[in-house]
TrEMBL record:
Protein name: Beta sliding clamp
Organism field: Devosia neptuniae
Domain DNA polymerase III beta sliding clamp C-terminal, residue spans: 252-372
Any GO molecular function: DNA-directed DNA polymerase activity
UniProt domain DNA polymerase III beta sliding clamp N-terminal: residue ranges: 1-119
Organism classification: Bacteria, Pseudomonadati, Pseudomonadota, Alphaproteobacteria, Hyphomicrobiales
UniProt cross-references to SUPFAM superfamilies, sorted A to Z: DNA clamp
Length: 373
């Protein structure tokens, strides 16, 4: 194999594919990126056996060929080359690749491409195109609530499914929960998404797609089967396994009868929660108490080791004498997703889940479990 590439093109592609490669691998081949040179391009591919990322880079191919080289090492080399430099890659069919650029020369150990795994995609029963901005918003508004608890593996991702909504027609809905909070967001279902089965996209895949969508415009092609999902974002193709399992009935825990409504300025509330929680202890779960009375909301924290903190805010609340406690970090995570100037809290009682949503918007809602304080 003998090819010449532009450093910036190669670096951009490597930045997309090398991220899925784990730093530690049981199988040495999984630490490598596959290079396949043919005609006027080089195809790069990397996998961790759950996710596979492929991208083609324009190149001058003198001699076609295929090989694999250490992904992270190659990325660091190319990253440190001069901007706009010309990069030449050459193998003689043996166990080494020679990389030259200007006066720099590197010898990289290769492994045979014959043992490089292929995450076979199979057939996809559902295919649709979705605006990159819409997919990005679905992910951004829900991914923070993904659970990290391995024993509840079915919560380790975002649940995507099509739902018939009597008011707006069919919607594509994304849901994530860790048992303490839940995030739900939806958009009008793209053509082809209707009838799509419920799928759970793993957290790592969500993170990689989110990075690919950063700055992306236009549409993303999405293909879904019972076990895999494939995203095509510009020249990048990401294929991933899905989480096998049943996502819980989130609608059952979504409050339906919360009739105590509180409107509060989002920015002021977030700042106040952040301030008073400074004194909270991790041992105590960073609990903050909300007490509403006479148009004022008092936020307070008590730490037996360090003291107390409190702050008052003006609120619109149709009930007096109400108290409830929340984990401050969870509360800040949810408030950080509110886009309107005011955040709306819907309470039932101090022991029941609270509903949080934007003012005048129905595309997203959040559920937060209370704490004893």
């Amino acid at each position: 194999m003998k090819v010449t590439l532009e450093r910036n093109h190669l670096l951009k592609s490597l930045s997309h594919v090398h991220r899925v490669v784990e730093r530690r691998n049981t199988y040495p081949i999984l630490a490598n990126v596959l290079f396949k040179a043919s005609e006027d391009r080089v195809e790069l591919r990397a996998t961790d056996l759950d996710i596979e990322v492929t991208e083609a880079v324009p190149a001058m191919v003198s001699t076609p060929g295929t090989t694999t080289v250490p992904a992270h090492t190659l990325y660091e080399i190319v990253r440190k080359l001069s901007d706009g430099a010309e990069v030449r890659l050459e193998t003689d069919g043996g166990e080494n690749m020679v990389l030259t650029s200007g006066r720099s020369r590197f010898n990289l150990a290769c492994l045979s491409p014959d043992s490089f795994p292929d995450l076979k995609s199979g057939s996809f029963g559902h295919e649709f195109a979705i605006a990159a901005s819409a997919l990005r918003e679905l992910i951004e508004r829900t991914q923070f609530a993904i659970s990290n608890e391995e024993t509840r593996y079915y919560l380790n991702g975002i649940y995507f499914h099509a739902v018939e909504n009597s008011a707006t027609g069919t919607v594509l809905r994304a849901v994530a929960t860790d048992g303490h909070r839940m995030a739900r967001a939806e958009i009008e279902a793209p053509t082809g998404a209707k009838g799509m089965p419920g799928i759970i996209v793993p957290k790592k895949t969500v993170g990689e797609v989110q990075k690919l969508l950063d700055g992306a415009e236009g549409e993303v092609k999405v293909e879904v089967s019972d076990t895999k999902i494939r995203f095509t974002v510009g020249p990048v193709v990401l294929l991933s396994k899905l989480i096998e399992g049943t996502f819980p009935d989130y609608d059952r825990v979504t409050p339906k009868n919360n009739d105590k409504q509180m409107n509060v300025d989002r920015a002021s509330f977030a700042t106040a929660v952040d301030r008073v929680s400074t004194i909270a202890s991790d041992r105590g779960g960073k609990a903050v108490k909300l007490s509403a009375k006479d148009g004022l909301l008092e936020l307070s924290v008590t730490n037996p080791d360090h003291g107390t903190a409190s702050e008052e805010l003006a609120v619109e609340f149709d009930t007096d004498g109400f108290e409830i406690g929340f984990n401050a970090r969870y509360l800040l995570d949810i408030i950080g997703q509110i886009r309107s100037e005011s955040a709306i809290f819907m309470f039932n009682d101090a022991g029941s889940p609270t509903l949080v949503k934007d003012e005048g918007e129905t595309k997203a809602l959040y559920v937060l479990m209370p704490m004893r304080v």
